[in-house]
Amino acid sequence: MPTAPTPRTWTLRFKHHRSTILLHIDPIQTLPSIRRDLLAALTQTNPTGTFNTHTLPQNPDEILLAKPVDINDLSLGWETLASTSTTDSETSGKGKGKASSTASSVTKGKNSLQDCPQGAGLRDGGVVAFKFKGQGGDEGGVRDTQEEDEDEIVVAEEDRGPRRELWDVVVPTLEETYGDQMDEEEDEGVGMDEPTGR
User: Where is the composition biased (Acidic residues) (predicted)?
Assistant: First the structure.
């Protein structure tokens, strides 16, 4: 379970559909441990075992995470945050001498740096999308980011541009968030700028 926040602690916003879960994490905490913390929070707050009509997984490895392509425009999509793992040559003990062990430690250090929020390019207060394996978007749920018109000539698969996974994240518009307040402020401000006659 996560410890109490400290001055070093970050707060990340984990989004799924219209739900947002805030987690306090350490910037160099590993992604697998963050998945464990997220699953623990989901399990505690959803005793029925379902979250947004999806069954909660038993294993935190079944939770997929992604960061925004552009933090200022979440509609541009999401990049998957994959936990890095050591290669077979690093774990099998094969290889010779000091040079291979040095290269192995450098690679492990680089991978461990990328396997944490700070190394993945997240920031305090950042947004992270999450979903469960088999929810859609993984294996067959990938869509083209380039829209196709009905009259458009069919383009070869490799020429279509980047492909991104689908993530169920609904970002409310300003009108949805502040609609009533914005209308009230506009009504109140109508007579404020009018010049007073003397």
Answer: 146-156, 177-191
